[in-house]
Write a structure and sequence with these properties.
Elements: E1 12-13, H1 17-26, E2 33-35, E3 41-43, H2 47-71, E4 76-80, E5 87-91, E6 96-99, E7 102-105, E8 112-117, H3 119-127, E9 131-135, E10 138-139, E11 145-146, H4 150-161, E12 165-170, E13 188-189, H5 194-200, H6 204-217, E14 222-227, H7 233-238, E15 243-245
Parallel strand pairs: 1-9, 4-9, 12-14, 13-15
Antiparallel strand pairs: 2-3, 5-8, 6-7, 10-11, 14-15
Helix pairs in contact: 1-2, 4-6, 5-6
């Protein structure tokens, strides 16, 4: 995170699955995941779990990030997508999961898809020299709070601001040819190769590649998927460490 010090025009978008899972277990609300018919693994988000997401992400994770930036001399402000209606979303009305070989509908799921990001709010903070720290949840036009994917928020934020680069930092060093081999990083993926890469990818990497595609579609120049668990991860990713998608 020290890479952010002195870097102008930075927006930090965060998730925090580990914090959500840990808090959920402490509160007696262990996480539940499901696989969609297309093979994407998603977090089950019924009302009690959404409350855990809000406590963990808009509370613990975001506050910790803002405090850590402050200790490094960076002025930062934490915003969930609900604040100022920063991230407007549409609630998913037909969430489907594969269970025991059957496709079932999850009627009480409070997850959503990002529709718009208020770039003017972010530009206002950036103009004051403040780093916006943004994370789920989001809000619908009717005022319903919904959980949304942090990578897709990042893609929409990058597109709304006309960003040069979107960095997606994760627990692997990039898109891997062999999931069990951390040295098998695919260094570059062309835009026309993305559909095939998404089809071959597993788990959370599918969502990151989807987010990369949305960012490119919105005009972002390049997306880099790289490791967060190394020294100076942002500088390393900007220098080309990881998988670059143009």
């Amino acid at each position: 995170m020290e890479d952010l010090v002195g870097r102008a025009g930075c927006v930090l978008v965060h998730g925090g699955s580990e914090s959500v899972d840990r808090l959920g277990k402490e509160l007696g609300r262990p996480p539940e995941f499901y696989t969609t018919p297309s093979g994407v693994v998603s977090r089950r988000c019924e009302p009690a779990h959404l409350a855990t997401v809000v406590l963990a992400l808009a509370g613990e994770v975001q506050t910790s990030l803002v405090a850590a930036l402050g200790r490094r001399g960076v002025r930062a402000v934490g915003l969930s997508g609900v604040d100022g209606r920063l991230v407007l979303a549409r609630r998913r009305s037909n969430v489907r999961a594969v269970r025991d070989g059957r496709v079932v509908r999850l009627a009480d799921d409070l997850s959503g898809t990002v529709e718009t990001v208020d770039a003017s709010l972010l530009r206002g903070l950036l103009g004051l020299g403040i780093v916006p720290v943004v994370g789920p949840p989001a809000v619908t036009s009717e005022g319903t709070v919904v959980n949304v994917d942090a990578d897709l928020i990042a893609a929409r934020v990058a597109g709304a601001l006309g960003a040069e680069t979107l960095l997606l930092l994760t627990n692997v060093p990039g898109l891997l040819r062999e999931p069990s081999d951390r040295t098998s990083v695919v260094p570059r993926v062309r835009r026309e190769e993305l559909p095939g890469a998404i089809e071959r990818a597993g788990g959370r990497m599918k969502k990151k590649l989807h987010a990369a595609g949305e960012a490119l579609e919105a005009g972002v120049g390049r997306v880099v998927i790289a490791a967060s668990d190394r020294a100076h991860p942002i500088a390393a990713a900007l220098a080309g460490d990881g998988t670059e998608i143009r």
